[in-house]
Amino acid sequence: MSVIELSNLSASFGGRRVLGPLSLTVADGERVALVGRSGAGKSTLLKLAWQQCGSDIALVPQDLGLVPALPVFHNVYMGRLNQRSSWYNALSLVRPFKKDRAEVCEVLQALAISDKQWVPLASLSGGQRQRVAIGRAIYQGASALIADEPVSALDGPMANRVMELLSERFRSALIALHDVDLALRYCNRIVGISDGVIALDEPSNRLSTADILPLY
Ligand SMILES: Nc1ncnc2c1ncn2[C@@H]1O[C@H](COP(=O)(O)OP(=O)(O)OP(=O)(O)O)[C@@H](O)[C@H]1O
Fold this sequence. Notes:
alpha/beta, Rossmann fold, 6-stranded mixed beta sheet, two-stranded antiparallel ribbon, 8 helices, 8 strands, binds adenosine-5'-triphosphate, nucleotide-binding, ABC_transporter-like_CS
């Protein structure tokens, strides 16, 4: 069974083709790292993948898509906004239910930012905001993830901790990563993008860092 199935995908901006044509399938249980130099087409591919296949897939976009004026709790809670009725969401905006507070807190604890639960997002650092967006994706409860550079603002130990958490919480994933070592460690397949097309597609255990670096 596949969670992402893209066939003959392409994208152009202002008449210039930046992606494709390419086809890509991510099977249930696969964690795929998208690697390649800046501007290669990874974000464009992830956006199209989510638009075409994403109704049950959690998303961490490159721009995070958070609401700065709202507390961290509500930004994470948004992961389940469309799973609840509008009256439940309206009440939660004013006075969140105990069960939801506990569940959001558990996610924030796993991301080492539970002390920020009631702080406005605007007052957080870039790395803390990135963890909030990851928290929202985890809280959604989906089994598959699409993420665009989800740990780019985190230091080494925290990036490893978060990648580990993503591996535990999502069975399947398509994740753009600039850090080749993280890609090899936490993903079981590497797809390299160069000038908008797939230039490499191999299981991680058949690759070393040196095999991937020519893409950069
Ligand atoms: N909205 C847009 N309008 C015009 N060109 C765009 C737009 N979005 C992306 N592009 C172009 O498409 C190409 C691929 O961009 P994309 O963001 O997919 O690359 P990327 O591999 O994700 O880069 P990075 O690693 O820097 O995020 C680039 O040349 C970029 O300039």
